[in-house]
Amino acid sequence: MDDRIPWVVYFMRIAEEVATRSTCIRRHVGAVAVDPNHRILGTGYNGAPMGMSHCTKDTCIRTIKKIPSGQQLELCKAIHAEQNLVVYLGESLANATVYCTTRPCTTCTKLLIGCGVKEIVWKQDYNDPYADQLLQEYMGQAATVDEYGYHHACKVSNKPDLS
After folding, report:
1. Which of 19, 60, 119, 153 falls 20 to 30 Å from 94 in CA-CA distance?
2. Using CA atoms, how far apart are residues 111 and 66, in angstroms rounded to an integer?
C-alpha cells in the first residue's frame, strides 16, 4: 500500500494534534512517545501543572517580564511537553522514540537521555548548542534531517553504554 503515510509523519501529526491541548499562551508544544513496535506509550503537552491556574496574558511571568523565547526557561509556570512524558512514563521511555513538535530544550534533552530514549525526532528547530552537544555525545552521532524536514537524533546501536 504505497499511499500509507510513513510512521514519522503519522506520529508527528499526532504530536501536532496533542499540542492543541497546550495551555501556554506563548508556544504550543506536543510530544508523543512510541515503543519500538510503533505503539504509543503516551503523550504530553506544555502547560501549567495539574491543579494550577493556566497563564493568561496578564499572569504569564515571561510576558510580564518581557523574557525572550529560549531564555531563562526556569522562569515559567508551564511544564514542558517532554517533561510531562517523563513525569507520567519515566522508565518506560527506555528505548522509545519521542516525537516533538519543537526541539527539546537542554533540560528536556537531559531528562529524555536519562530515561534512555533511543531517538528524538522534532519538527521546529532552534539554536541550542549545548543540547546539540549532549545529544551527539549520548547518541554517538549528530542529528540528521530527513526528507520531510524532521530532525532525528538517533542512538547508534553499537555505542557502548558508559553509565
Report:
1. 19
2. 27
Distance CA 38, CA 41 (A): 9
Name 102's bridge partners. Answer: 124
Q: What is the pLDDT of residues 8-63, one digit of tens each?
A: 999 999 999 999 999 999 899 999 999 999 999 999 999 999 999 998 889 888 88
Q: What is the DSSP letter of 94?
A: T
Task: Say whether 82 is catalytic.
Answer: yes
Beta pairing class for 97-102 and 119-124 = parallel
| Among 13, 18, 42, residue whose Cα is nearest residue 28 | 18
**Rounded-to-integer distance, Cα 117 and Cα 93, Å:** 6
Q: Quote the CA–CA distance of 140 and 155 in Å, as a whole number.
A: 6
Give the whole-angstrom CA distance, residue 139 versus residue 11.
21
The single residue listed with the C-alpha cell 555505542 is 159
* Catalytic-role residue among 82, 119, 137, 147: 82
pLDDT tens digits, 70-82: 788 888 888 999 9
Give the side-chain half-sphere CA count within 13 A for 158: 0
Question: Does 158 have pLDDT greater than 70?
Answer: no
Under a CB-based contact definition with an 8 Å cutoff, are residues 111 and 2 in contact?
no
